[in-house]
Amino acid sequence: MPAPFSLSHGILLAVSFLAAWPGYSQTATPKPVAPLRSGGLGSASHQPPCWQQVGISKGVIEQRRSLEQNTRTQVESVCADSSLTPQQKHQKIKELRQQARQQIDAIITAQQQEELKACNAQRATNRSAPLPRPVTGGLGPCGEMAANPAQTPAEGDHHSNTAAPQQP
Questions:
Q1: CA–CA separation, 103 vs 64, rounded Å?
Q2: pLDDT, the chain, mean
Q3: Dist CA 37 CA 129 (whole Å)
Q4: CB atoms < 10 A from the CB of 100, how many?
Q5: Which of 18, 86, 87, 153 is most buried, by the most CB atoms less than 10 A from its CB?
């Protein structure tokens, strides 16, 4: 008569089975992982960030990001201020963005900004899948419906001085 099958034999058998299974085996060949940002189509070479490529220091980029974050925080505060009318909110937000634009212009030259924009656009066209962007659907910075979405700059869009002047 065969020896009784014990729990320890069952566990040993299960572990042996899993070790032989390609998905659980440590000796299985790992699948190559695609880099998050490739240097171009199918290229695994690493490119320096666009800001570095156009000659902007990391400190200046961090300063710009800080200015943009502070502006977003201030815009959120304006939006939450129930004592302001929608027109007052719009005007205050416009002023905050103009101040941020001036501060950014003081630390990054117009030429560097254009080169940075061009580099980022070029890399965006080289990506296999575009990065997800929030959809605002014509909403203003406070979530209200914009009178003319084409004239309302997107939140955080401090890079364009070409917006047409708005009529009251």
A1: 8
A2: 73
A3: 11
A4: 20
A5: 153
CA distance 50 to 135: 25
- Going by C-beta distance under 8 Å and a sequence separation of 6 or more, which residues neighbour residue 59? none
H or E element at residue 63: helix 58-80
Domain ranges of the chain: 50-123
| Residue-wise pLDDT tens digits, 61-78 | 999 999 999 999 999 999
Provide the whole-model pTM.
Answer: 0.55
Q: How far is CA 93 from CA 4, 39, 106, 153, in A?
A: 80, 38, 20, 11
Confidence of residue 127 (pLDDT cuts 50, 70, 90): confident
For 76-129, the three-class secondary structure string (H helix, E strand, C coil) is: HHHHHCCCCCHHHHHHHHHHHHHHHHHHHHHHCCHHHHHHHHHHHHHHHHHCCC
Measured between alpha carbons, how far is 66 from 74 in angstroms, rounded to an integer? 12
pLDDT tens-digit readout, 90-108: 999 999 999 999 999 999 9
| Whole-angstrom distance, CA of residue 165 vs CA of residue 162 | 9
Task: Give the C-alpha separation, 67 to 89, whole Å.
Answer: 20
